[in-house]
Amidase domain-containing protein (Hevea brasiliensis), 586 residues
Amino acid sequence: MTKPLGLIKAHASNPKLWVVIGVTVAGIAVLAETRRRRRKAVLMNREDFGAFVERFEILPFPQPPPPAAKQSLYGLTFAIEDIFDLKDYVTGFGNPDWRRTHDVAEKMAVVVTALLKNGATCVGKTVMDELAMGITGENMHYGTPINPQMSLFVPGGSSSGSAVAVAAELVDFALGTDTIGCIRIPAAFCGIFGYRPSHGTVSMIGAIPNSQSLDTIGCFARDPSVLHRVGHALLQLNAVEPRRARRLMFADDLFQLSKVPKQKTEYVISKAIGNLSGYQLPKHMNLGQYIASNVPSLKGFYEESTNLQNGTSALKAISSVMVSLQRYEFKTNHEEWIKSVKPKLAPDVSNHVLVAINTKYENIKTLYKIRSEMRACLQSLLKDDGILVIPTVSDPPFKLNAKKGYSTESRDRAFILSGIAGMSGCCQVTIPLGKHDGCPISVSFISYHGADKFLLDTVLDMYSSLQEQVGIVSNLAPFPDTNGNMDASELLKEKGNAAFKGKQWNKAVNYYTEAIKLNGTNATYYCNRAAAYLELGCFQQAEEDCSKAISLDKKNVKAYLRRGTARESLLFYKEAAQGESSFEPV
């Protein structure tokens, strides 16, 4: 036994000893918390949240004289990821050795020119993962931008600085690139909007390529109206388009990957569209099984494990193909520079680059064939009115400077979610939905390739209603986790039961009604609402609910009894007698 432990044992009965121990432990805890808060304060006080590589101001093109319309982005400021060319500036690609071995750009990136022509002012270049080969947002050379929502956690990448500049309100919007989630992931981690356009719809001229078959130029914004305006400017869209009905589909199997309860997201979206016109009731599907049935060339990439269901195998195969395609094209683009310069890279980036450079690729034609089949698959599913609803990310961000970054399993889940739009070329918008357990949460809407205006219009149309529902849900009791046995409709039923016991009849009716909207095939919900209607003297509504409950469950004893009571109260003696004669005890 050590000497300190011996002393404690010898004087264990002395109360003064325990006071000293308690004060010591409390002091250690206070010191640790003080250091944590001090570190957080230092991080938050870093200039510009560490988002920028360099600051400058490039003014927009002059406003055309009347009768020309006012520039759509007039008065807005934006930043660009350090992957875009600006005339007379060196494009750094997130790495000092790249900057050192390249000359200043002779021309402006096409996309930057388009934004300047529309009246926006460019105020700087932002930090990114080295060579766009990461999804965490970390950069050992320029520092990792500080996530304004969670300062001790990574901001997500590769377009980390652009996301942080928007989230910290340093600019109105920012440009980034998205290859395997590089806009969508930081948008989710920083609690802002992120837009990945349909592949090939925004010119990549003047942007350093990572993987041409996957690269897109997109943007971040805090406000959906700004996102909408920037999207129109990037794609040169017409301002007016005939309104179409909208059909939302939840990919239930993808929500099983998420740490955020699906019920919360489903409830918010279902309630939001219930207040709007032109939206069908949401449907549910298993996306993995649909892909397995409609992307035949994918079968050769299924894992040999026999434990995986067919749909899960397809999802993992899609992410694997996406990563292989990115590595192959990265090697084609940058192998010569990597081998000649031998740049200094962060260990994780170096590992990714070495795998890409040293791998021999023998099935390239199949990778491109799968990409074409995926686009056709999603087009067939979504048609011209469909919107696929999926979680943007599966896991929360990990802590800055953590010894262990993303596990293999976490990266696999991230790439499964990123691979749907990545491999199909579809457009996707990340939409912030408040917080869960202190972490920003989001959902993503995906529409078919070329449906960018339809998607942006939908987000703008829905967001105020979504915000309202997020506010309501935040005041409710916590939703069960995804592995729980209670879904959103059951939670509402329980709230209705509680209101009923408290003799809050109207409130109970409202809760049961919301449960029915989410699940109209549950006889108990109608029967319980009928009980509340009886207390309120609404006998006709009670009779109708009981009849509906009986049609769904002919052995629902309470429904027969309550229907009899309702009919008697309405003086429908004949019907009441028939109701009693049809009673079937269980």
About this structure: Residues 310-341 form the longest helix (32 residues).
